[in-house]
From TrEMBL:
It comes from Moniliophthora roreri (strain MCA 2997) (Cocoa frosty pod rot fungus). This is F-box domain-containing protein. Residues 65-118 form the F-box domain.
């Protein structure tokens, strides 16, 4: 074995000492080499894994980058929500932050910028000195946003969550409305959820300038006692509602909408109307509403009526006819239900939704609806009831109403809380019997939504449902298309299993059982109002 030359001329002991020292150094280097080699192998493996992940993630990007501009524009239009909030983390502003090409496409597509939801900033704390700057920056951003829309129709929504401590921001919100005036002429949809004071820039702007306005939602609120509407300068800040030639859908939330709904205006284009009143009697508006000759859908919500504001309405001297109205939703205090229905004639009514949660007895309401149907000679197809009461509600007026509308095809009483005896009487009256087919209420009823009472007779419910699941072709009574029952009883689900195609049983759980089992407590809304 060849050894490297050396000039060392020591004794044997010296040689052993040198060899031992060199051996230790060599062993240390070998250990360091093994450690570095293992680290290198680990890094190489991790590098390869990351390379594969990168290639997988990059593959779709390469496809997207090669898409034609027209395809990207269609994708962007589909992706965006109906109303994009004016902030960098949403809507077209977010698309413009992805890459240079996406930014170019977003800026060159006016359709992406035609809808905007503007939230006026509020002070985070009473001494917030930056709020004026935030409002100024927002106004500049909104102007830049709308400048990218070309000449396309616009959809604009403005929201200001006004609180008493934000009274000093009324001017800032008014400035926001002011910068929108040049663009409102191109609006097909506008939503204003603002204090009335903020709409002063719109004072007496003629509605004929709003040639493209089709839908308007205006929610006016007056939270500041120091600025009541009666103290405002003269003028009508929402006059454009009255004179817009193409306005067909109007939603107005105010305590006195009669300030804006003037009978001298031509409302013939209006087809959908929703009113929410606070503190006024609904009958006062009907001499105006009767001018809406082409109204198709009408929603009337009355939150509060001062019963001491005046004497009860006398019997109607005349009736108001809405010849084309086919969809009516009414949510008013019980005392005024009959006032509304007693003055109307609705020959085209097909859908009626009645909601009330403060009623003592619904007998008068059902009688008024029955008289309305008889007086109007209409063909009511769908009836939805969302009614609650702490007292017993006699079933006779309700059944008499059902007998008055043989055209009824859909009945939704999921929100109508009945007593146990009322359930049994209802099922017994509508069950199909061989000897009483001619007198059964609602012979054309095909769809039913109903809750179940755990204390009612389950046998009568099963008999009622099953009797109209299998009906012969010669029978004058229609068979069920669908029945939906909300229940807590598992036995009912089993009993109706044979009619699974027609009957849907929603098995619910008592909230206290969820609590005992450690499950979260939830109160389901079985059927939301229209």
């Amino acid at each position: 074995m060849d050894c490297p030359p050396t000039h060392f001329r020591g004794t044997s002991d010296d040689s052993r000492m040198v060899c031992a020292q060199l051996s230790q150094e060599l062993a240390a280097l070998d250990a360091e080499f093994e450690q570095l080699h293992a680290t290198l192998i680990h890094v190489a493996q991790k590098r390869e894994e990351l390379r594969q992940k990168y290639q997988t993630a990059r593959a779709p990007l390469s496809v997207v980058r090669n898409l034609p501009t027209e395809v990207l524009q269609s994708i962007f239009n589909y992706y965006l929500p109906p109303f994009s909030v004016a902030r960098a983390s949403e809507g077209p502003l977010l698309l413009g932050r992805i890459c240079k090409k996406w930014r170019s496409v977003a800026l060159g597509t006016p359709e992406l910028w035609t809808s905007i939801h503007i939230v006026v900033p509020v002070a985070e704390y009473p001494s917030d000195r930056n709020i004026a700057g935030k409002c100024r920056d927002l106004r500049e951003g909104v102007e830049t946003w709308l400048s990218r829309t070309g000449n396309l129709p616009l959809r604009i929504s403005v929201y200001f969550n006004a609180r008493e401590q934000d009274a000093r921001l009324l001017g800032e919100a008014a400035k926001m409305v002011e910068i929108l005036i040049p663009y409102l002429k191109r609006c097909s949809y506008i939503r204003l959820d603002l204090p009335l004071q903020c709409l002063q820039p719109l004072n007496d702007i003629p509605g004929r300038e709003f040639q493209q306005l089709e839908t308007a939602l205006v929610k006016l609120k007056d939270p500041f006692s120091l600025s009541e509407p009666s103290n405002l300068s003269h003028g009508n800040p929402v006059s454009f509602l009255s004179d817009s030639p193409r306005l067909c859908s109007l939603c107005l939330r105010d305590d006195r909408p009669s300030r804006y709904l003037r009978p001298t205006v031509n409302w013939s284009s209006l087809k959908d109307l929703s009113l929410k009143l606070v503190g006024s009697r609904p009958v006062e508006l009907f001499n105006i509403i009767s001018q809406f000759t082409n109204l198709r859908a009408f929603e009337l919500i009355v939150c509060y009526v001062d019963r001491h504001s005046g004497p009860p309405s006398p019997p109607p001297e005349q009736h108001y006819t809405l010849p084309h109205l086919h969809d009516l939703t009414v949510s008013v205090p019980c005392d005024f239900i009959h006032e509304i229905f007693n003055i109307l004639i609705l020959p085209s009514l097909q859908k009626l939704h009645l909601e009330n949660h403060q009623c003592v007895s619904f007998a008068d309401a059902f009688t008024s609806i029955k008289d309305l149907c008889l007086r109007s000679s209409n063909s009511l197809h769908k009836l939805t009831l969302n009614l609650t009461s702490d007292s017993f509600k006699p079933m006779a007026p309700f059944l008499e109403l059902l007998r008055t509308v043989p055209s009824l095809m859909e009945l939704d009483v999921a929100g109508y809380e009945m007593e146990n005896a009322e359930y049994d009487e209802f099922f017994e009256a509508l069950v199909l019997k061989a000897d009483g087919m001619d007198s059964i209420p609602c012979p054309n009823l095909r769809k039913l939504v109903i809750p179940d009472s755990t204390a009612s007779d389950e046998g009568k419910l099963v008999e009622f449902v099953s009797s109209r699941c299998e009906v012969k072709a010669s029978c004058p009574v229609a068979a069920w298309d669908s029945v939906r029952i909300s229940t807590y009883r598992k036995t009912l689900q089993t009993a109706l299993l044979a009619y699974k195609g027609q009957v849907e049983v929603d098995l619910r759980t008592h909230w206290y059982n969820n609590h005992r089992m450690g499950l979260p407590i939830s109160f389901d809304v079985f059927d939301e109002p229209l």
